[in-house]
Write a structure and sequence with these properties.
The chain is of the alpha/beta class. It has 11 helices and 10 strands.
Length: about 300
């Protein structure tokens, strides 16, 4: 019997046990088990979506967004990763490249085990800097910055790499860093960018003279919890502007399906309906799963619209 079939039986048995527990104790099942998602073992994604990823950058203690709820630990990382696959239906995770660790050997052992466990579950690994703009790299040359990323890629072999996170570098520096990085990489690597903050900022970059967009293999755009520009029309415009028809990803998206993280703002539905090829959900833990890998109400709602049987 395959791994998926065994896990399906375990989930079914657990659901039955929780239902019995709820009945005997006079509790509604939701009070005991929380939301339950039905994820088909063989599935596809809605519309043009190819990559549905959980962002785990805030799950590492070096992150400024790290909390007890977001943490990946020795005790929970296996359950969290399995839950993301089996209970949510994602096929990739985003992890941080940490500026404090210029040498790949400086990363904690737990970091390496999380990457290995993700690969063992068939998850793609997407790496992005754990920093905002240029401040953390004061005094770094373009060559040093490129070497930091190239060394990470050589050690951890991510499937996708964003050289910048909410890029605050000038286009001149971005161009220099990416060129140095391409030269330094020992193996072909899919680069995602420019990853500027706000969908409108990325549209402006793609439409600017001498845009840096052609430097990247995938066009990535962040939209934050307060991004009023993350509308279906703007996602469609970004896709139309992508040079050579390159795929467009929403590389950090905190929204719910039909509404934004804040009232009155656009939801994920606009990005998916417009044809993005990649969707990265901000704070995959605890936004999508808890410490036991159990899905949240948000995860189940997204799965209902994103994950479908083949």
């Amino acid at each position: 019997m395959g791994r998926v079939d065994k896990r399906s039986k375990v989930r079914a048995g657990s659901a039955l046990a929780l239902a019995i527990l709820a009945s005997c104790c006079g509790l509604p099942s939701s009070a005991v088990s929380g939301p339950l998602c039905s994820i088909p073992s063989a599935h596809r994604y809605a519309r043009a979506l190819r990559w549905y990823m959980a962002d785990l950058k805030s799950s590492f203690p070096e992150s400024g967004d790290y909390t007890a709820d977001s943490a990946l630990t020795e005790a929970n990382y296996a359950a969290v990763l399995s839950g993301l696959v089996d209970n949510v239906g994602v096929n990739g995770i985003r992890v941080p490249m940490i500026p404090d660790y210029e040498s790949s050997g400086a990363y904690p052992e737990l970091y390496s085990r999380i990457i290995a466990a993700a690969r063992g579950l068939g998850l793609a690994v997407y790496a992005s800097p754990l920093s905002f703009g240029p401040e953390q790299y004061e005094g770094w040359s373009d060559a040093r910055y490129a070497a930091w990323i190239a060394n990470y890629v050589a050690a951890f072999r991510p499937d996708f790499v964003s050289p910048f996170n909410e890029a605050g570098f000038t286009d001149y520096r971005m161009r220099g860093i990416v060129r140095a990085l391409r030269y330094a990489l020992a193996r072909p690597t899919v680069l995602v960018g420019p990853d500027k903050k706000l969908v409108a900022s990325n549209i402006a970059e793609l439409e600017a003279p001498y845009s840096v967009a052609p430097l990247f293999d995938v066009i990535g755009a962040h939209n934050t919890g307060g991004d009023t520009t993350a509308t279906p029309e703007n996602w469609a415009r970004l896709i139309a502007d992508a040079p050579g028809g390159k795929p467009v990803w929403s590389t950090e998206n905190p929204a719910y399906w039909s509404v934004g993280q804040r009232a009155g703002l656009p939801g994920l539905i606009g990005a998916v309906a417009s044809g993005v090829k990649g969707l990265v959900i901000w704070k995959g833990k605890p936004s999508l799963v808890d410490d036991a890998g159990q899905p949240t109400a948000k995860a189940c709602k997204l799965a209902q619209h994103i994950v479908a049987p083949l």
